[in-house]
Amino acid sequence: MKIAGFDIRCASVPMPPHRTASGVVAVSPLVLLSVRTDAGITGHSITFTYTPAALKPTAELMKNIEPLAAGQPLAPAAVSDALHARFKMLGAQGLVGMALAGIDMALWDAFARAQGLPLVQLLGGQPRPVRAYGGIGYDGVEGSARAAEDWARRGLLGIKAKIGYPTLAEDIAVIRAMRAAAGPHMQLMVDYNQSLSPTEAGQRLQALDAEGLAWIEEPVAAHDFPAFARLAAQTRTPLQAGENWWVRWTSAMRWTPACAAT
Ligand SMILES: [Mg+2]
């Protein structure tokens, strides 16, 4: 089976302003990629480009990469190796990395569809569905509690809230207010959006262990694997990461902490 070509669309989906510890998100800029094969199977991916400024450039990069993939066998790992080799001098990070990741996801989706298996099973894993949950922005104690109550009223059994307030006490106040508003059976998750230093994360996460959270998402920079490993060893609550990995990190591209002293 060979890759026939790409169909690419840009979508700017308006959303209510969603505050995070890293800024306000008011629109969801998405590149929708479909990779066609000569066997009639199509794989899809959605790439969230964070800012509308990156939407068209990411889509155009994918379009410009299409001739490098078209006509190749549908072998996602081999195509990924070839594309990364091709971009070695420019560097497969930033928007290039994002475009390559979107293509990679669509190729794997097509490959799984061709095998008739969910991708997680094809990769040797087991499906572990996550409970549907409502999102809560960086909305303070009262705003987060109101949103939690609203999701509970709408029948959801899980919520995930942005935290990363100036102090740990504020993080805990928001979590407890949501718990009080949504009831004891609501599954609570929190997301730091990479806003803590490893030292600060170590202190806050140990305190959050007592709050009964289902997971704590991205407490530190997404690619600081040593910090994640240390935090995971110190914390009972599961840590969540992966949403912002769009670069394949090899031994030649080791993460270097920005704040080596911390
Ligand atoms: Mg997140």
Any overview of this molecule?
There is one protein chain. It contains eight helices and eight strands. It has 262 residues and is an alpha/beta fold. β6, α7 and β7 form a beta-alpha-beta unit. α1 crosses α3 and α5 (140-153) runs parallel beside α6. Residues 191, 217-218, 243 line the site of magnesium ion.
Q: Which terms would index this structure?
A:
2 domains; 3-stranded antiparallel sheet; alpha/beta; 22% strand; 262 residues; disordered C terminus; 5-stranded parallel sheet; TIM Barrel; elongated; 8 strands; Enolase-like, domain 1; binds magnesium ion
Write the layout of secondary structure elements.
Blueprint: E1 3-20, E2 23-37, E3 42-48, H1 55-69, H2 76-86, H3 94-115, H4 119-122, E4 134-136, H5 140-153, E5 158-162, H6 168-182, E6 187-191, H7 198-208, E7 215-217, H8 225-234, E8 239-240
Parallel strand pairs: 4-5, 5-6, 6-7, 7-8
Antiparallel strand pairs: 1-2, 2-3
Helix pairs in contact: 1-3, 2-3, 5-6, 7-8
The structure holds magnesium ion.
Magnesium ion is lined by residues 191, 217-218, 243.
